[in-house]
């Protein structure tokens, strides 16, 4: 992808988000753009940063660490870990990211808390919810969600910010909205249970379903393909 195309696709993604917010009757800036850069080279991230993008999402720990090392000179860049997280990788994530969106079990919660360097301040956490109820997908069930949230809230080095989901692909706005509505309701329920918690984040919506997610209250949309183009299979 050339620099010119990247600058156009990033501008298009921003315009698309602005339009979706406006169509939903929500204020400009009510949802922000997370640029999902997995499999894309550090040079492309640098270019997006030069165009004003600050938040980037990565899925694979070693790939992300390599790119972070290459991009260490970029001010105010914010790294979000959004991929499946194995226990043996929690230390790298706790030490090198600001956010984790894919937390779905207690063992991972405890390790991230124990391994988070105090000097970095709290690690922002979204719990990934299995919202489409597929046996194969990761994510905590809606039933187990309040219990897991309670565990995160007892951890001094973690800050529970909200929920994330990756619904199974669906065609059409209303089919796409249904799982996002369930995630929104789950966040509302957690806010009632834990009124002191800083629960302000609904991480939902990707290149194919951003509009549906914004209609249901997404505060962070995670766009990969729409910004950086198609990915080669890894
Ligand atoms: C890859 C990925 C995205 C981006 O998906 P696109 O369809 O390319 O926008 C968003 N969220 C997660 C968790 C991902 O793994």
UniProtKB/TrEMBL annotation:
A Pfam family it matches: Ala_racemase_N
InterPro entries linked to this entry: Ala_racemase_N, PLP-binding_barrel, PyrdxlP_homeostasis
Keyword Endoplasmic reticulum: no
Keyword Transit peptide included in the entry's annotation: no
Record PTM N6-(pyridoxal phosphate)lysine, positions in chain: 38
Record's keyword terms, sorted: Pyridoxal phosphate
Domain Alanine racemase N-terminal: 14-231
Family label: Belongs to the pyridoxal phosphate-binding protein YggS/PROSC family.
Reported function: Pyridoxal 5'-phosphate (PLP)-binding protein, which is involved in PLP homeostasis.
HAMAP family: PLP_homeostasis
Protein's UniProt name: Pyridoxal phosphate homeostasis protein
């Amino acid at each position: 992808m050339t620099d010119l195309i990247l600058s156009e696709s990033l501008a298009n993604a921003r315009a698309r988000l602005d339009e979706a917010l406006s169509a939903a009757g929500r204020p400009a800036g009510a949802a922000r753009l997370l640029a999902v850069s997995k499999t894309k080279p550090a040079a492309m991230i640098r270019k997006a940063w030069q165009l004003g993008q600050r938040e980037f999402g990565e899925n694979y720990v070693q790939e992300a660490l390599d790119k972070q090392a290459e991009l260490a000179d970029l001010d105010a860049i914010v790294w979000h870990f959004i991929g499946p997280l194995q226990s043996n990788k929690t230390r790298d994530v706790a030490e090198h990211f600001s956010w984790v969106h894919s937390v779905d079990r207690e063992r991972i919660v405890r390790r991230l808390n124990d391994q988070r360097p105090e000097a970095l301040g709290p690690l922002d956490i979204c719990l990934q919810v299995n919202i489409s109820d597929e046996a194969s997908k990761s994510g905590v069930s809606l039933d187990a969600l309040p219990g897991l949230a309670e565990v995160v809230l007892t951890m001094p080095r973690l800050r529970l910010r909200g929920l994330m989901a990756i619904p199974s692909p669906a065609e059409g706005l209303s089919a796409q909205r249904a799982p996002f509505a369930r995630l929104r309701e789950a966040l509302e329920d957690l806010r009632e249970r834990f009124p002191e918690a800083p629960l302000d984040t609904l991480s939902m919506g990707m290149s194919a379903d951003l509009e549906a997610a914004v209609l249901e209250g997404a505060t962070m949309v995670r766009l990969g393909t729409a910004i950086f183009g198609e990915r080669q299979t890894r």
